[in-house]
Amino acid sequence: MARAVRRRKDPREAVAALAPLAIQTLSDIMQGSGSETARIAAAREVLDRVHGKGKTGEAEGGLTVVVRRFSDDPAGDAASGG
Fold first, then answer.
1. In degrees rounded to 5, what are phi and psi of residue 66?
2. pLDDT tens digits, residue range 51-81?
3. Could you please report the per-residue DSSP string of 21-81?
4. Given CA atoms 25, 31, 37, 40 in this order, what sign does their dihedral have?
5. Which residue, 5, 20, 34, 39, is most buried by CB atoms nearer than 10 A?
């Protein structure tokens, strides 16, 4: 099953040469009768490669909410004479 991969000087080339085997392996896991957890993990890996990993709101430039209490307002302290 495993094929010999010709040695390459550039490690990226060696990894790229293994990509079809990695995809086939993920496909086999997804379609196999193994654990549901393994099949879901394989499916996620495939989807992450195709669509990119999901990002959190912070990574996407999400909304920042600042909550202030009246007691935190320095202008309010001066106005109250305190």
1. -115, 125
2. 777 655 455 566 777 777 777 656 655 555 5
3. HHHHHHHHHHHSSS-HHHHHHHHHHHHHHHH-----TTTTT--------GGG-HHHHHHTT
4. positive
5. 39
Query: CA 47 to CA 38: how far, in whole Å?
Result: 14
0.85 exceeded by the pTM?
Answer: no
If you ran DSSP here, which 8-state letter would residue 6 be given?
-
DSSP helix/strand/coil, 20: helix
Single-letter code of the amino acid located at 59? A
Number of residues written out for the chain: 82
Q: What digits encode the pLDDT tens for the residues 9-53? A: 788 888 889 989 999 999 999 999 889 999 999 988 888 888 777
